[in-house]
Design brief:
single chain, alpha/beta, 3-stranded parallel beta sheet, about 35% helix, globular
Length: about 80
């Protein structure tokens, strides 16, 4: 995450506050980087979204979320974890 900030790369991620997604967002924010969350509305309603990330896009489904995460991407970094 620090390297991404150092290189001026804007991160678009799944929007979560826990686990590696949350750690990624925390580190990007702590180092002054740009980050955008993409999260389905139902996940935001059960408060899984990161409260410190101010730029969010909301989708109706997980499928839409995954498609949106790929739009315009120059690279993809996959992290382990999830339910």
């Amino acid at each position: 995450a620090k390297s991404l900030v150092h290189e001026g790369i804007e991160v678009v991620y799944g929007g979560g506050a826990k686990g590696l997604m949350g750690q990624l967002a925390d580190t990007i924010l702590a180092h002054g980087g740009k980050i955008k969350g993409v999260i389905p509305r139902f996940m935001d309603e059960i408060e899984w979204g990161h409260k410190e990330v101010s730029d969010f896009e909301y989708t109706d489904t997980m499928h839409e979320r995954k498609a949106r995460l790929l739009e315009g991407a120059d690279a993809i970094i996959a992290l382990p974890g999830g339910t």
